[in-house]
Amino acid sequence: MSDQYYSEVYERELGTDLIIDRINQLMIEGIPDDEQFLLDRHEVQYYGSDFGDPLVFQTIGYINQPELYIQQAIMWYATELLDYPDMELSKYPV
């Protein structure tokens, strides 16, 4: 996976990160603590962990992009920013 596709990550309030996939027009919020997570039923969620610390990923402005694109962007983030290429994703809290 090339950095050119997912090269933008912005740190947001409360320590969350915003992953932007410019090619597929995706924005995904990475939330480090599931206690501050507010489920939006109109968005797509994935759950993972940063070496044991829970993470929640939720799209922002989802417009029916394939979920494979969401998974690829999250795995890019896990590999490039968390140095955790083996992070497992789940549709349910881990």
Structure description:
With 94 residues, the protein is an alpha+beta fold. It has one domain. It is built from 1 helix and 5 strands. The chain has a 5-stranded antiparallel β-sheet with strand order 1-2-3-5-4, covered by helices on one side. A hairpin with a 5-residue loop joins strand 1 (8-11) and strand 2. The relative contact order is 0.24. The mean pLDDT is 86.
Number of strands: 5
Major sheet summary line? 5 strands, antiparallel
Shape: globular
Number of domains: 1
Unreliable residue runs: none
Distance between the termini: 26 Å
Instruction: Please report which band the strand proportion falls in: under 5%, 5-15%, 15-25%, 25-35%, 35-45% or over 45%.
Output: 25-35%
Q: Helical region count?
A: 1
Radius of gyration over all CA atoms, rounded = 12 Å
Overall structural class, as computed from helix and strand content, comes to alpha+beta
Average pLDDT over all residues: 86
**Share in helix:** 10-25%
Pattern of helices and strands: EEEEEH
The strand order across the widest sheet is 1-2-3-5-4
